[in-house]
Design goal:
The complex is a heterodimer. Chain A is an all-alpha fold. Chain A is built from 19 helices and no strands. Chain A has helices at residues 4-7, 16-41, 43-74, 77-81, 83-90, 93-99, 101-108, 125-137, 141-168, 178-203, 216-239, 245-248, 251-282, 285-295, 299-318, 321-325, 327-349, 361-384, 396-399. In chain A, helix 2 packs antiparallel against helix 3 and helix 3 packs antiparallel against helix 5. The longest helix of chain A is centred in the N-terminal third of the chain and has 32 residues, at 43-74. The two termini of chain A are 19 Å apart. By secondary structure, chain B is of the alpha+beta class. Chain B has two domains: 6-53 and 130-177, Alpha-Beta Plaits (2-Layer Sandwich), CATH 3.30.70; 56-122, no CATH class. Chain B has a four-stranded antiparallel beta sheet, covered by helices on one side. Chain B is elongated and about 80 Å long. The chains are: A mainly alpha, B alpha+beta. The A-B interface holds A 1, 273, 276-277, 280-281, 283, 319, 321, 402-405, 407-408 and B 17, 20, 24, 43-44, 47-48, 52, 57, 61, 88, 90, 96-97, 99-100.
């Protein structure tokens, strides 16, 4: 089994990566113009949509970092083949840190977060009493900013270490960084679990400061890793049209990516159902407000769509082995689940602001504007490094030619 | 049914790759009923002997569905029919409370179906198997790789099949008595 012909494979990303980056940037700029107009005309709607868009794309970046760290701990060809895709997504964390600034502006301007307003403006007596306590200790403007700085510092540090060591293995004579990766990935996953839980509480759960769910951080976390795996499948499908991905991506790897999608979809359903079952069983006035709001006034339809099309249908489809092994089919479910991720975050965030179902122009425009910039940066990152760290000890798992069984391809 | 005195013809190989190549060639030559034996699992070998699909997933799916229905109906019968109990003012038939047990019963039945379905389909435990009539076959659990063409194959012919297998550069070729 000689790997020689494949070893000489040119691992640089195809030039179309740059084209996509440029087009994404154009989309980002065009939609930003509309978004900025909306920010001045309808600031409240703008900031809600901004939080929605920000959480969508943050999820892809942080989820990619988490999957990358899982791969560093477990190994496996499935992770090698998408390692640089995950890495490029992870290295967008600095951009996301900059994109977080409007959220700080929102808090300064007393927008969307009710706890950021002067307390005398709040009419509900119970809520005001509750907030008098918590706005002195946890939900303070400075605390919000400092914690955000802290989360982004940790994410940037993890991203910096993992990508620096990864870059070293692009060249001959590279050190074996496997153990270093492990040392960072283990604690890194724990840190990610804690930081994203607190970030989810600060940025999303605190929209309704009278409501508490202890599993909420995990609900956001699992959504992020699901988004990231689906995004990686979409990008690997695009790259599959060109060398070197067309040589590297084998049905076994695609199968594993499909299995991850199935696992994350199931865990997503499990966490969401756990949250709902506990609140339903307890039936306490302080807790049921979350679902009373989200199951009435038209929001219930969105909830039903999410149950069926974010869980039931994808779950059923992903049981099929041949479906999971076929990248041309799997990619469509990945695109679909990414749309469902958007809808799920929409259903989590937006009912805080309206009793009845309401879709605004900003809900569409702002996430696309953020996505345009994010994708431009992502594809720039993807083009900056070879698509495989060729001198990593595990690179052989991807570069070895597959056994010749064409009927299985 | 009259039992064929000859079970098949078996060829012995030195390496996993040689076995994969031989299995590929034999399958390509039109032999349908073939099998391969190796000391360790070899990726891709099952496909080469023309084994693409097994029925275990179907058994597991059916087992899982039966388990889920059993779990749900059991709870429904207990909570709403046999011993109705008012819990927190909720309806007797409160489906959300039934989901966890339903889920666990699905897993339990699917798991049991996987084990027994596998045993039923591969015929284990099997106290007698003709391949052990070839003394060299003991090496299949050490460092040798074996390919067999069963005598029940349509294309099977004692002389021609032996000649074909010998053409694959095996270490040895033996006739397997039933």
């Amino acid at each position: 089994m000689s790997a020689a012909p494949v070893k000489q494979l040119d691992l640089t990303a195809p030039p179309m990566v740059k084209t996509i980056a440029q087009r994404s940037l154009i989309v980002g700029v065009v939609f930003s113009v509309v978004a900025v107009v909306l920010a001045f005309m309808r600031p409240d709607e703008f900031y809600r949509a901004y939080l929605l868009g920000f959480m969508c794309w943050l999820g892809v970046a942080l989820g990619s970092m988490a999957i990358l760290m899982i791969r560093h701990l477990t190994g496996g060809g499935w992770g090698m083949v998408i390692r640089r895709i995950l890495g490029a997504a992870m290295r967008t964390v600095p951009l996301l840190a900059a994109l977080f600034i409007p959220m700080i502006v929102a808090v300064w301007q007393h927008r969307i977060y009710i706890w950021a307003q002067p307390l005398q403006n709040i009419k509900d007596k119970h809520l005001r009493e509750h907030l008098e306590d918590i706005t002195k200790t946890y939900l303070t403007t400075n605390g919000f900013i400092l914690r955000a700085v802290f989360y982004f510092a940790i994410w940037n540090l993890l991203s910096f270490l993992l990508s620096t060591w990864s870059k070293q293995t692009d060249h001959a004579g590279a050190p074996d960084n496997t153990d270093r990766f492990k040392v960072v990935a283990g604690p890194g996953l724990i840190l990610y679990g804690f930081t994203i839980s607190f970030a989810a509480i600060d940025w999303v759960m605190s929209l309704d400061p009278s409501w508490i769910s202890t599993i909420f951080g995990l609900v956001i976390l699992i959504g992020e890793v699901l988004s990231a795996m689906c995004f990686a499948v979409v990008v690997e499908r695009i790259l599959f049209n060109y060398k070197p991905m067309s040589e590297m991506l084998k049905p076994d790897f695609v199968h594993d990516h499909g299995k991850w999608m199935l696992a994350f979809t199931m865990v997503w359903a499990y966490f969401n159902f756990s949250q709902w079952l506990i609140i339903w069983a307890g039936n306490l006035p302080a807790e049921i407000t979350y679902y009373m709001r989200r199951l009435n006034g038209g929001w219930g339809y969105i909830g039903l769509i999410i149950v069926i099309f974010h869980f039931a249908v994808p779950f059923g489809i992903l049981l099929s082995r041949s479906f999971k092994r076929n990248i041309r089919k799997l990619v469509w479910l990945a695109v679909w689940l990414l749309l469902m991720r958007y809808l799920d975050l929409f259903w989590i965030i937006e009912p805080n602001f309206s009793q009845t179902l309401k879709f605004t122009l900003a809900d569409v425009v702002v996430p696309i504007a953020i996505g345009g910039f994010w994708l431009a940066y992502f594809f720039r990152n993807l083009g900056a490094l070879p698509l495989l760290p060729a001198y990593d000890p595990s690179a052989g798992e991807v570069l070895e030619p597959a056994h010749h069984h064409p009927e299985n391809a | 049914m009259k039992r064929d005195p000859i079970y098949g013809i078996m060829a012995e190989f030195d390496s996993a790759q040689a076995l994969i190549d031989a299995a590929h060639a034999t399958h390509q030559a039109g032999y349908q009923k073939i099998d391969a034996y190796s000391p360790f699992p070899i990726e891709g070998l099952a496909e080469e002997i023309g084994f693409h699909h097994d029925e275990v997933p179907l058994v597991v799916l059916i087992g899982g569905i039966i388990g889920g229905l059993t779990g749900y109906l059991m709870q429904y019968w207990m909570s709403a029919v046999d011993y109705p109990l008012n819990i927190g003012g909720k309806p007797y038939h409160s489906w959300p409370a039934f989901i966890i047990i339903t889920f666990e019963m699905t897993i339990l039945f699917a798991g049991i179906s996987a084990v027994f379905g596998m045993l039923a389909l591969n015929g284990l435990p099997m106290p007698y198997h003709p391949v052990f009539n070839v003394p060299r076959f003991a090496l299949a659990s050490k460092d040798r790789f074996f390919l067999i063409v069963f005598s029940s194959d349509k294309k099977y012919d004692p002389a021609a099949t032996r000649q074909f297998l010998e053409g694959l550069a095996p270490r040895s070729v033996s006739e397997v008595p039933s």
